[in-house]
Amino acid sequence: MSKVRAGLLIRPITSLMPLAALAMTIGLSGPGWVTGIACGVIMNSALARGLARSGADSLGPADRVTFTRATLVGGVAALTADAFTRPPPVATVVALTVVALLLDAVDGSVARRTHTESTLGARFDMEVDAFLILVLSVFVARSAGAWVLAIGLARYVFVLAGWLLPWMHHSPPRYWRKVVAAIQGIVLAVVAAEVLPGRLADAALAVSLLLLATSFGTEVWWLWCHRRTETTPDEADENARVRGDDTTAKAPGVRRKLHAIAAAVTTVLAFGLVWFALVAPNQIGRLTPGSFARIPAEGLVIVALALVPRPWASRTIAVLFGVLLGPVIILKVLDMGFFEVFDRPFDPLNDWLYFGPGVGVLESSIGRDAATAIVVAAAVLALVILVLMPFCVVRLTRLVASHRRVSIPAVTVFSIVWILCAVSGLELAPGIHVASTSAAGLAYDEVGQLRANLHDRQIFAHEIAADRLRDTPSDQLLTGLRGKDVMLVFVESYGRIAVQDSSFSPGVDAVLDAGTRKLRAAGFSARSAFLTSPTFGAGSWLAHSTLQSGLWVDRQQRYNQLLTNDRLTVTAAFARAGWRTVFDDPAITQDWPEGSSLYHFDTSYDARNVGYHGPQFSYATMPDQYTLSAFRRMELTRTCRPPVMAEIDLVSSHHPWTPLPHLVKWSEVGDGSVFNGMPEQGESPDVAFRNPDQVRALYGQSIEYSLNSLISFVQTYPDPDLVLVVLGDHQPHSYVTGDQPGHDVPITVIAHDPAVMARISGWGWQVGMRPRPDAPVWPMDVFRDRFLTAYGPQPSPLPRPIHR
Predict the structure, then answer these.
(1) Would the CA dihedral through 118, 120, 124, 126 be positive or negative?
(2) From CA 460, how far away is CA 458, in angstroms rounded?
(3) Which among 59, 51, 98, 61 is positioned nearest to 76, based on CA atoms?
(4) Which of 457, 526, 676, 802 has the fewest CB atoms inside 10 Å of its own CB, making it the most exposed?
């Protein structure tokens, strides 16, 4: 029996083995068996026909790998057919798909190593890829929608078009098509695994389909521009004259015009992207038409280098320049975002940590699926920019080099104009110079920032070590607060803008003034001022560590460095002096080792361990009223306990400031179920943020709620041994504060015991909870030393002189 005949007998039996295995393990219904057998029969028939046409006796080593893949794909097809009659075994479908995708990277390698590459093998491999994508698109379409079938049908529509249009037959093999096909398989497999949220899965499929459409569209356009005709040009002209028209004669001209238009559009887009990288400012407020009407020095340099006589040198320079411009665009966009949120540029060495919390805030504003989709889209866009920029620069430099007679005079004239504008300092607007060095300046600044960060490590290490209070004996720490419960309360985003010169400050001021009266009636007094926070808009942990450590922690690098040192914090001082130290932050949803390593808290409370069974309010996992109630229940009502020192973070005033709870009777707080239904009564963040005025109003209302919760807590439980330090961590985002709002935050000390307030009488702070515009302003990092000194041992009074 010949090898071919033996193969024809063995292969159908082999192709049915996966079906038998599936039937014995998870079972197959009738549609599954029919589909699997049909796939095996069609595959073997097509393969036998291909072998006969190629004249081969048997399958090669690589073809056997592809055959194994094909049998696995047949199993996936059988399970997909099964999925329409019963719940599908997703894990099995994904497992078979993953193995098939991995083997796709094997058959080509085997063919090259064994030197058995063949047209049949390449076609066999391509058809298996296409069929796997079709089957997976059918599987995914059950949940994602019929539109996903476009991914699987694209290849077959292209083949059908080739039957109808002969000029589409001559498509040369391209590595890019293989990459795109692999991406389709991977994306469909991930979506089929059901590990992505619905919206993110849809976004991934949409991007995949767009990439596929781009690949096929590019291929069709190339084939159109290079299509072959069955007649010679002379014959075509003669036929056109016989028919009485000149359509054929005009076709080459039409093609040339279309090609010229496409080339012009591509060139314009490339120029726009490069121009944006060269001259765009890194702040949204400076994005004006005038900011793009500048002469970039970097552009003049690259044009001059493009005119180098050696083409290979100019191309190499263009590619390197494009590789550098890609990160420049990304850094400018990041700067824009950081200026809007933090009022400072992006720090490429330390600011990557903000992306995690930033995504969390975005999820609380627009929903988890939408936020994830935005993050994925941003990552894809960044990748596209990095890949496209070298091609854009190369295209432009080729254009310059092909028009030397125009380029040389132009670059000379513009260079002279640039020099004159640079010498004269000509500006289109404040800070927007006609002679631009935007891209080079940004790169220089980033390198300088990196060097400054490295140098700052040494400086900050000396500052950490230079602690004059580190060796203070325990019996001399906080003697002025012995026996008192002390609450260090951070009110999220509580900045100067809340109490001064804003549309919402009158409401906040009214709450503070009323709170001062209520506390006075309960026997408490208050003094207030401002502290300058090291952060703006976000980064609460930087403010917390600055206040606690007495060091200026204005960047993540310093915070990370502080964590590795045993610096005396305010909390650690209380712990050494005999207080039980507690941390309470409802925004934390996972372990937080810094609580013990840096602050030395004895106990930490977060969203998981305070017994809350109510609803979440956007970012806030629970209302501030519940946070305070739970803290009192778990700490202050204990009997036979030491005094408690607690840092408590009130987060109802955290972005996005809606929806908000409202106060209930303290006796009704319970496990928080009393707050059920309140989030539905407020405005959702995605609706509120369509109106900037509404956003600012909601911010003011959130601050009012947090302050009212605290004031009501003290008024309801007026403990004479209670001392509070209440302050903000940072100003809110710039779309609330406006331009250049500063970093000041209010701070208030509240106590019942007059002796406690007498200790800070020399600070010059103003009476009441509301600091006026002329209130003292301290850097936040001086608070630790002044607080521990004020409440430490007081110097003995000098003896009175004896008058004789």
Answers:
(1) positive
(2) 6
(3) 98
(4) 802
Instruction: Give 473 or 690, the one with higher predicted confidence.
Output: 473
Q: What is the DSSP letter of 800?
A: P
Q: What angle do CA 405, 411, 417 make, to 5 degrees?
A: 140
**Helix then strand then coil, % of the chain, to nearest 5:** 65, 10, 30
**Cα(750)–Cα(771) distance, integer angstroms:** 13
Q: Tell the burial category of 716 from Cβ atoms under 10 Å away from its Cβ (0-12, 13-18, 19+).
A: middle
385-400: pLDDT as tens digits: 888 888 888 888 888 8
Three-class SS of residue 615? Answer: coil
Q: What span, in angstroms and rounded, lies between the C-alpha atoms of 650 and 703?
A: 10
Asked if 699 and 737 count as a contact pair (C-beta separation under 8 A), the reply is no
Range among 51-60, 348-357, 422-431 with highest mean pLDDT value: 422-431
DSSP-assigned letters across all residues of 367-401: -HHHHHHHHHHHHHHHHHHHHHHHHHHHHHHHHHH
Q: Say if CB 281 and CB 334 are below 8 A apart.
A: no
Query: Is-contact 608 651, C-beta < 8 A?
Result: no
Of the candidates 416, 448, 447, 441, the residue with the CA atom closest to the CA atom of residue 432: 441
- Contact yes or no for 393/321 (Cβ under 8 A): yes
- The one-character DSSP state at 796 is P
pLDDT exceeding 90 applies to what percent of the chain? 31
Q: Is the peptide bond before 659 cis (omega within 30 degrees of 0)?
A: yes
Distances (CA, A) of 193 to 140, 185, 675: 9, 12, 37
Alpha-carbon gap, residue 130 to 242, rounded angstroms? 45
| Residue that has been written with the tokens 């197959």 in this structure | 28
Average pLDDT of span 228-248: 45
Q: Average pLDDT over the chain, rounded to whole? A: 82
**Tokens coding 73:** 């794909």
Q: Per residue in 282-306, pLDDT tens?
A: 888 777 777 788 888 888 888 888 7
Contact call for residues 198 and 369 (beta carbons, < 8 A): yes
Task: Please name which of 156, 190, 387 lies closest in space to residue 273, comparing C-alpha atoms.
Answer: 387
Burial of 496 (0-12, 13-18, 19+ CB in 10 A): buried
Q: Are 644 and 582 in contact, with CB atoms under 8 Å apart?
A: yes
